[in-house]
Structures are given as C-alpha cells and as structure tokens.
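Duplicate of #3305? Posting structure anyway:
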C-alpha cells in the first residue's frame, strides 16, 4: 500500500491572485462612483446657491411698488454682481421686465448664472406683478 499524502489545506497562489484582481476591479468601480458623487454634490450646491439668489430677488420684487424704478420694462443687471459663494464661485443675477399696459401686469424673469469647468449654468424664475 502506498503511503497517503497529506491533503494540503489553503489557497494556491493563483487563487489569491484571481481574488485580488476581482477585488481590485470592484474597488476601482467604487472609487469612480465616489468621484461622481462628489461632483454631483458640488453641482447641487451650486444650483442651490443660484436658486437662493433668484428667490431672494423674487421676494424683494414682491415688496416693491408696481412703479419702482427697478421694475421699469427692459433688461436689468444687479448692482451687487458678482455674488461670490463660500466655494469661490461667482454668480451673476439679472432680470428682465416686460410690461403689458392693457392688463397692468409686469412679467419679471430673474436669471442667475455661474461658470462651471466646461460650460455655464443658470437658473431662471418668472413671476407676474400686478398694479
């Protein structure tokens, strides 16, 4: 009778290398996901700041008189431009007023724009002011 060889327990080098490759691919995917999440979070912060600037001006217009000089028909640029966020992004706020004498209504469109790495972004709100 032949002597029995003891059965080796454990992993071979090849099995360990395959496991490392599979784990590395998964970790690289998670790293990419983290980068996308960080960029999305930053973009959301920029949009929130732009919306806040537009809504602040919208609220101010609600308190203005119908004949206020800032509500004269035409294009207007905010004298406070640019508004700089804590992240160092510059936001420019402007508005357009269109008057309709037949109905005594003014349509006000507020736009806040800011630059990004490869393009410009903006948010726009429209409201109507009655006499």
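Output from current build:
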């Amino acid at each position: 009778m032949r002597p029995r060889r003891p059965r080796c327990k454990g992993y071979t080098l090849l099995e360990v290398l395959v496991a490392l490759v599979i784990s590395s691919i998964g970790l690289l995917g998670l790293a990419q996901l983290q980068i996308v999440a960080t960029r999305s979070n930053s973009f959301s912060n920029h949009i929130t700041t732009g919306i806040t600037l537009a809504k602040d001006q919208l609220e101010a217009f609600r308190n203005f008189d119908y004949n206020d000089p800032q509500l004269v028909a035409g294009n207007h640029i905010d004298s406070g431009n640019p508004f700089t966020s804590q992240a160092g992004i510059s936001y420019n706020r402007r508005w357009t007023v269109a008057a309709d004498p037949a109905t005594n209504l003014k349509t006000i469109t507020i736009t806040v724009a800011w630059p990004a790495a490869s393009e410009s972004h903006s948010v726009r709100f429209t409201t109507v002011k009655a006499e």
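Confirmed duplicate; merging threads. Strands lie at 74-77, 83-84, 90-100, 105-115, 120-130. The chain has a mean pLDDT of 88.
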